[in-house]
Amino acid sequence: MITRGRTVRALTLASLALGFSACGVDPKKAPAKFRLEGSLTQVMDLGYDEARILIAPEDVSLVFVRIRPLVSAPTDDAGTSSTEPVAGTSEDYPFKLAYRLLEDGLPSGGRVDLAALDANGKQRGVFSRNVADDPRNSLPPIVRGTISFNRPLDPDTTVTGDFHVTFENGIEAASGRTVFSTYSARVQP
User: Does the pLDDT of residue 7 top 90, yes or no?
Assistant: First the structure.
């Protein structure tokens, strides 16, 4: 037996879904709060909701995070749908910029050259992405690129800065394209 409160809630959720679909907005895909810029945005969605700086033993990464709400109709043990929605979130990573530290340690602020080569001839800047239902996870090497930090990367502080990257020409979707932005990110240990 469905109670009056559940019926009202189910009708409200149905009305919202109908309202969003009528105006072309998917309630599961709210617009991103921010967007990276550059020609790479012509071939990939680079919208994000927050930026994080992650510190690992071998690199420091600037990760742009897209938070996706997960809403589904739950079922009980018998497989019967319920009127109460199950909600949660998932994260996509539309762009990740990692700087390999090597023996230098963490940057103490200022600008870092992402195209600099290590002793083995590999670039110190490494770029990737991880977005649900998008197989394009790796990005090509870069021709040039820098990132700046306005302060030392101390845990639990907010760091601002900017970055600019130009990818090498080639056959991948990101080839020859640029991506850039200013950012404000929380440093997570």
Answer: no
